[in-house]
Amino acid sequence: MNTSDFAELKMFITGPTLIRKEVREAGALPEFGHRDKENDKRCVPIFKNLKKLAGISSNEYELFLINGSGSTCMEASIRSLVRDDETVLNISVGAFGDLYHNISKNNGKRAELLRFPNGRAVELARVREALEKFKPGVLTVTHNETSTGVLNNVMAVCELAREYGVLSVVDGVSIFGGMDIGLAEAKPAMYCTSTQKCLALPAGFGIGFVSRKALEKAETVSVRGHTTDILRQISKSRSHQALTTPNTTLLNQMAVQLDYIINDEGMEARFARYAKMQGMVEQWVEAQDGYELFAQEGYRSPVMTAVRAPEGVSFGTLKNVLKERMRERGYLFDPGYGKLNQELEAAGERSIFRIGHMGDIMPDMLEDYLEELGEELARL
Ligand SMILES: Cc1ncc(COP(=O)(O)O)c(C=O)c1O
Predict the structure, then answer these.
(1) Per CATH, which fold does 21-263 belong to?
(2) Among candidates 209, 128, 219, 208, which has minimal Cα distance to 166?
(3) Alpha helix locations (H) across the chain?
C-alpha cells in the first residue's frame, strides 16, 4: 500500500487532535501481555497520573479504562447507575448533552431531557425546577459542550444534585486534562472522559472515575451488562488492568504522554497554556469584522472556541470552501458541528465554526493558524 498520500494536516479540530512526535514514536514500543507484569510498568503510572490530573488524592474515587471511547464510558454510567424504576434527568446545552439523553433512552431507561438553547450554559434555577418536577435518581450534565464551546459550572450542578439526594454523572470528554476539573470538590458520582481530546492521544479508551457512592448504587441496579458494568470494570482496574483486551499500543503512548504532562510540562503550566490560547482566540475573533463568539460570556471553554460567522457565510461555504482552502495550507479546519449548523440555517440563523486549541497545540502554532485563517476569511 502506498501510504505517502496520507496527508499530514495540522489539526485544529476539536478531537482527535495532534499527536506529538514522541507520542507517535511511543506507538512503536514493544507490545505486551495485558495480564503480565509488563502491564504494571505502563498502567501503574498511568493510573497514578490520571488521578493527579483529576485532582484526587484520597480513595474517594477509583478509575477504570474501558475499551471504546467517551461514549462507551457514558453508556457504562447509564447501564450501571440508573435503575429501571427511576428517572434519569439529562441536562443538555447541545449535541453532546443530547447524546447522553439518547444513550439513556436507547438503553431503555426512563429519561427526561432538560434542554438549554445552543450557546447558553446550564441555568441552575431551571435545574432545580426539573429536579422537583421529575424527582430523578440520577442526572447527567456535560462539562464542556463541544458543539457550542460552552463550559458549564458542574460544581454548582453537582452541589444542587446533592441537595436533592440525586447522583450526578458528568461528561468531561472534551475537557479532562484541559483545566482543573475539581473532582474532589464537585464530587460527582461518576466522571467520564476519553483519551483523544485534551490528553492529545489517539482514541481508544473511555476513562471513568467512580466514587464509592456510585459503586454502592451499582449494586442495586439489576442488569448492568458485561463491559458496561462499572463493578466488573473496577474489579479488574484495582490491579491496573482493563476488563477486556486493551490496545497495548495506546497504553504505551498513554504512559509516555501522561508522564510528560505531569512531570515535564506540568499540570499548572498546561492549564495556563490553554487559558492563554483561549485569550488569543477570543481577541482574534473580536478583531474579525462580522465574526462573534458563540458561547455565553462567562461560560466559554478554555480548549475550544465556537465562532459565529457573518451573514452570507453559509455552512456550505465553511465546509466546502474555507475548509478546502485551509487544507491547501496544510491545516484541518473545523467547519462546526454539522447537525447544529443545519439547525441554525433552518432557523435562519448564522452558521458557526470551531477552533480547537486543545491537547498539544502550542501558542505559536495557534498564532500561525489564526493568521492564515484570518487571511482566508478576508477572501470569502
Ligand atoms: C463532550 C463530548 N461528549 C461525548 C463525546 C463522544 O465521545 P467519543 O467520540 O469519544 O465517544 C464527545 C466527542 O466529541 C464530546 O465532545
Answers:
(1) Aspartate Aminotransferase; domain 2 (3.40.640)
(2) 128
(3) 21-26, 37-54, 70-81, 95-106, 124-134, 154-163, 183-186, 212-218, 230-237, 248-259, 267-287, 315-316, 323-328, 338-346, 363-379
Q: What is the pLDDT of residues 194-219, one digit of tens each?
A: 999 999 999 999 999 999 999 999 99
Helices 70-81 & 230-237, crossing angle to 10 degrees? Answer: 120
Q: Which residues contact 21 (CB under 8 A, 6 or more apart)?
A: none
User: Which residues contact residue 115 at a Cβ distance below 8 angstroms, ignoring those fewer than 6 apart?
Assistant: 92, 93, 97, 98
The atom number, within ligand 1, closest to the CA of 194 reads 10
Nearest atom in ligand 1 to the alpha carbon of residue 142 is 1
- Per-residue pLDDT tens for 105-148? 999 999 999 999 999 999 999 999 999 999 999 999 999 999 99
Q: CA angle 332-271-54, nearest 5°?
A: 105
Ligand 1 mean position to 15 CA, how many Å? 9
- Given ligand 1 and candidates 194, 197, 207, 334, which is best to mutate, with the most ligand atoms within 8 Å of its CB? 194
Q: The pTM is what?
A: 0.98
What average pLDDT does the structure give for the chain?
97
What's the pLDDT tens digit per position in 335-349?
999 999 999 999 999
Give residue 299 CA to ligand 1 midpoint distance, Å. 19
18-50 pLDDT, tens digit per residue, is 999 999 999 999 999 999 999 999 999 999 999
- Is the CB of 140 within 6 Å of ligand 1? no
- Could you state, in order of their start, the residue ranges of all structural domains in the chain? 3-15+267-379, 21-263
Element (DSSP H or E) covering residue 191? strand 190-194
| Cα 75 to middle of ligand 1, angstroms | 12
Helices 124-134 & 154-163, crossing angle to 10 degrees? 30
Instruction: Classify domain 3-15+267-379 at the CATH class level.
Output: alpha beta
pLDDT for 59: 86
Q: Please state whether the peptide bond connecting residue 45 to the residue before it is cis, i.e. omega within 30 degrees of 0.
A: no
Q: What is the DSSP letter of 30?
A: P
DSSP label of 5? G
